[in-house]
Amino acid sequence: MKPTILKLKQHILIALGYFFIAAFLGVVLRFFRVLDIPVNYKFIVHTHSHIALLGWVYLALTTLLYRLYLSNQNLDKRYSRIFWFTQMTLAGMLCSFPFQGYALLSITFSTLFLFASYWFACFFVTNTPKKIKNTYSYTCFLIALGYLLLSSIGPWVLGIVMNTSGPTSVWYRIAIYFYLHFQYNGWMIMGLLGAFFFLLESSEIVLGKKQFERFIWGFNIGIVFTFLLSVLWVNPPVYVNYLAGFGAVLQMAAFGYLFRGFLKLKITYRGLFSNVQLSMITFLVGLLIFKMSLQLLSAVPYFATLAATVLDFTIAYLHWTFLGVVTIGLFLFADIFGLIRISERSFYVYIIGFLPTEFLIFYKGFGVWQNKPIIDNYDIILAIVSIFIPIALLLILKDNIKGVYMK
User: Fold this and answer.
1) Nearest CA-CA partner of 182 in 212, 208, 157
2) Measured between alpha carbons, how far is 52 from 41 in angstroms, rounded to an integer?
């Protein structure tokens, strides 16, 4: 095994370690309603969200980017500086958020993380070989990095709002939603699409240039317009709903157009993927279709208000996107490109944790919406089922630590 690939496997394991910590904290938050746990709930929420987004997804995606484009460029030392600087910021957040929430130390480390992400983006763009810059995959990754930088406007604005209007300001929530939207729907989804097109290019499967351009324009215009879904709770003029709905329709149409283009190519997938990879692909497609359908539904004024007022619906949607679409996508491509190995056992344990918890959260939201009673011991059941997610991550870590460190 090449030394670079071995190091990147270690980096993915670190990212998975952060994911385990975030998942464990998620279980703590669920048991908070059941047991008397001597922690500050709000502080743990901040820690959970930051470590999940930045420790797991950001690290996994940037490691994947380096693996695909830069691992043969003799850039290990320069990349290591960025990687370990990023670790310092993450460790700082992990050691400060649980004890003080948003305060001087945690804000300092969060700000330093933003600079680390700018550093990586610049490093990636300036060092990618010119011959690769005309590929569809690089276009997707470049757009993804653009969204990563764009999303960072949210935290900067948040700091200004905190020092002026305070957390009760409407701009406080808008800044948070701006950050989350362009993280989830921009940086993360486009990053996964980049990995998808890289896989196609590696297999010499070529989509027509016009088809790709129509897809990429339609999908990204959709990303921009669907941000408006995040501000419908302020009851804007009705035309904002139409624009948000237009963005959701455009995204669905772009994916449908892309799917139809691949059907015309009559690609045979047999032998290209393992059984567990095919399972992940199947889940991923289904999760993505449901996610886009929810986006379209939330453009309707009645459901926009519902999504804003019933917190369980918002939490379920965010977890559906993060734990479902994004995480399973990362599992898939990290497995395909040799960074980690996902066994059928660990994947299905993860699904046992993911799908029932999503069902339960949506179920509670539905109960609140329809003013229906919730089943007895709901919080206990939700907390217990949630345990399967960190168990799955421990299984993945066990399988891969054995392969990386015990050869």
Assistant:
1) 157
2) 16
CA–CA–CA angle 299, 303, 307 (5° rounding)? 100
The reported pLDDT for the residue numbered 104 is 87
Of the candidates 384, 323, 390, the residue with the CA atom closest to the CA atom of residue 33: 384
Amino acid type, 266:
K
Residue 182 CA to chain centroid, in angstroms? Answer: 10
Q: How confident is the model at residue 126 (pLDDT cuts 50, 70, 90)?
A: very high
- What's the rounded Cα separation, in Å, for the pair 329 and 64? 12
Q: Domain ranges for the chain, please list them.
A: 1-128
What is the C-alpha separation between 176 and 119, in angstroms, rounded? 23
Using the predicted structure, report yes or no on whether residue 1 has a pLDDT greater than 80.
no
DSSP string covering 79-135: HHHHHHHHHHHHHHHHHHHHHHSSSHHHHHHHHHHHHHHHHHHHHHHHHS-GGGTTS
Distance of CA 85 to CAs 41, 134, 144, 149, 305, Å?
29, 31, 22, 18, 42
Nearest to 358 by CA among 316, 295, 297, 391: 316
- 75, 126 in Cβ contact below 8 A? no
Cα 183 from Cα 145, distance rounded (Å)? 10
N residues, the chain = 407
Residue 407 is predicted with a pLDDT of: 46
Amino acid (one-letter) located at 366: F
Q: Summarize the confidence of residues 366-387 as an average pLDDT.
A: 93
* Percent of the chain topping pLDDT 70: 96
Cβ neighbours, 10 Å, residue 315: 15
What pTM, to 2 d.p., does this model score? Answer: 0.94
pLDDT in tens, 42-56: 999 999 999 999 999
- Among residues 273, 252, 258, the alpha carbon closest in space to that of 335 is found at 273
Q: Is 400 strand, coil or helix?
A: helix
* Largest interatomic CA distance in the chain: 62
